[in-house]
Amino acid sequence: MYPARLPGFVALEDGVIVGHVSYRVDGRRCELVSIEAEHRRRGVGTLLLDAVVEVARRLECTQVWLTTTNDNLDALRFYQRRGFRLTALHPGAVHDSRARLKPEIPRLGEFGIDLRDELELEKLLSA
């Protein structure tokens, strides 16, 4: 999957891109595929996430979900503070991807944490 080929949004500041998000809709579920803000804790990520949640609601999706990795503590904080809940743990998924598909995935992630598992989070959308 190539996030740049998916629908999404960009955040601009003085005509310069300072963030972007991409998503895909599958039936009644909306997957947040990628999100990036140039500067953290300035509200850009929240605005981009809110835009995806609004699209998902308009398309009558029942949830927005995403996958992150066990080392991504900032993402876990960010999403949980915005109403997302942990719904699944895939032990060894990153290790498996490294072995089968992408040997360039580093062994150590953020904060020097072994990069090995995937975590799913979801936000249920009310009608």
Would you kindly provide a brief summary of this structure?
By secondary structure, this protein is of the alpha+beta class.
Structural topology:
Layout: E1 8-13, E2 16-26, E3 29-37, H1 44-58, E4 63-69, H2 73-81, E5 85-90, H3 93-100, E6 118-124
Parallel strand pairs: 3-4
Antiparallel strand pairs: 1-2, 2-3, 4-6, 5-6
Question: Mind explaining what this structure looks like?
Answer:
This protein has 127 residues and is α+β, with helices and mostly antiparallel strands. It has two domains: 1-61, Aminopeptidase (3-Layer(aba) Sandwich), CATH 3.40.630.30; 67-127, no CATH class. Helix content is 25%, strand content 36%. The chain is built from three helices and six strands; from the N terminus they run βββαβαβαβ. It has helices at 44-58, 73-81, 93-100; strands spanning 8-13, 16-26, 29-37, 63-69, 85-90, 118-124. The chain has a six-stranded mixed sheet with strand order 1-2-3-4-6-5, with helices on one face. β2 and β3 (29-37) form a beta hairpin. The radius of gyration is 15 Å and the shape is globular. The two termini are 29 Å apart. The mean pLDDT is 93.
Characteristics:
single chain; 127 residues; alpha+beta; Aminopeptidase; 2 domains; 6-stranded mixed beta sheet
